[in-house]
Structure formats: C-alpha cells, structure tokens
Amino acid sequence: MPPATEAFVPQLAPRLRLxxxxxxxxxxxxxxxxxxxxxxxxxxxxxxxxxxxxxxxxNVFHHAxxxxxxxxxxxxxxxxxxxxxxxxxxxxxxxxxxxxxxxAFDPLAPEDQALEEGLEANLEAGLExxxxxxxxxxxxxxLARGSYARVGAANVLTLTFGPESAPVSGA
Amino acid sequence: MECTGSKQGAFYVLEVTGRMDALTSQGFETECQGRLExxxxxxxxxxxxxxxxxxxxxxxxxxxxxxxxxxxGDLAFCGLSGxxxxxxxxxxxxxxxxxxxxxEEALARS
Lengths: 171, 110
What we know:
- The complex is a heterodimer of chains A (about 170) and B (about 110).
- Chain A is α+β, with helices and mostly antiparallel strands and about 170 residues long.
- Chain A has five helices and five strands.
- Chain A has helices at about 5, 25-40, 45-65, 115-125, 135-145, and strands at about 15-20, 70-75, 95-100, 145-150, 155-160.
- In chain A, a hairpin with a 2-residue loop joins strand 4 and strand 5 (about 155-160).
- Chain B has about 110 residues and is an alpha/beta fold.
- A five-stranded mixed sheet of chain B has the order 1-2-3-4-5.
- Chain B is about 45% helix and about 35% strand.
- Chains A and B meet through helix 3 and helix 5 of A and helix 2 and helix 3 of B.
C-alpha cells in the first residue's frame, strides 16, 4: 500500500487528444477544470474558461474538418518551473493551448471585417431581425485573452485565464 | 439542465437549473414549445439556479423567444448572476429581451 497521501494527489494528464466531435466535449471540460482547480483559478475565471473552451471546441468540431472527422488536442501550457508562476504572471492563472489540423482559421481575429461589423450591429438588432449564428465566436473574442498561430498544418490557439485576463469592459 | 415550472397568474414561471451548454440547451426550447402547445404564451424564465450558459443556450433562448412572440406571447428573464449575467450582457441579449432582477418584478409587469 502506498502512503495514503499519494492516493489523493490527482495525476492529471498534461494533454488530451480526441476526435473533433461533440462527444469529446465533456472529457476536455473535465480535464481543463481539473487543471484550473490545481492552478487555484478563481471562480469567475473558471467560468470563463468553461465558456471559452466550449465555444472554441464547438467551432473546431463544426468547421475545422469539413466532410471528415479529425482530431483536436487540449494541452496545458506550463507556467514556469515546478508549477510556480513565471515572473510577471499573477498567481491563480492558467494557460492552455488548443490544436487542430484542419482548415486554417484564426478565431481571435476575423479576416472579414464586414462580417464582424455585421455581428456587432446584430447585437442591437430586434428579436425578429436577429440572426442566431456567429454568437459563439463573438463570445470567444470578447471573453478570451490569447493568441493564434498557424504552425505548419496546425491551428494553435493559446488561451490564458486569470486576474490579468479580464477584458477591458465598457461597463 | 433541468426545467421545472408552475403557473403564476398570467405567467408560466420556468425555473431553469444547471447548465445550458451545447449538449443540453435544446431542452429549453423544447420546454417552451411544450408550454406554448399547452396554451402558456407568457413565460418567465427564472435563471437564479442556472450556473452556466454558452452560445448554444443563447440560440435556444432566441429561438424560443421568437416562437412565443410569433404566437402573441413573450419570454422574460430574472435572477441572472455570474457568467450567465455576463453572457447576457456582452451578447446584447440583456437589451434584446426583458430581463428583471427578481421574479417579483418580472411578474409585476403587464
């Protein structure tokens, strides 16, 4: 029998790669929330992580691999040695990356400015005129702090959650 | 996500609890459709027990609201907090749909 304490230290995988379909959502979420718990992320940022992860993954599930089933990988981005925050990085923060090998797409910076402006206008549209699409990416861009890179044939989205990740709000 | 409801005067109050995400939120639209078919056109959704909502939840709400409005009814909300309130605000839904702080206020409207 190992010492009892060892049994209570969760061994969390540093990455998870699964088929890019909706059935994979709960497993990705469970791992991300476990990382967030270990990182000591405050509740408000855990909620934001939850939301941004779902919106990002749903976008990959539905658009990254037209006509085929690809894969998507969630990985923990290490925040310095020994799990301690890097210099300048506040405690209680978490960085993750999402990688897919599908159609090149930067969810943080829409190329189609007109589309984005249309979406902004759509926010003010009445019930009848309101179009339902595009809301997920809008929430993602509004609530996430991150960066995108096309690395070879991969889309790599890095997202950071924590005290510095609060978007500048007009409220 | 779970919905439990009761008739309160002119309104049907739907208490929504849990999570409205991509996997569950269709249930809200289905619930509203069921109430509409039962003759309840004015629905107040009490979201004080709702922990989470994503764009999938917003789509379900928008669809239900449009359907109720087309039938001459409406869909109002109360009890928003945390990420639910934040998502309603940044998405513009807080302006688009009637949102009240408390259930009492939602029921007091005409």
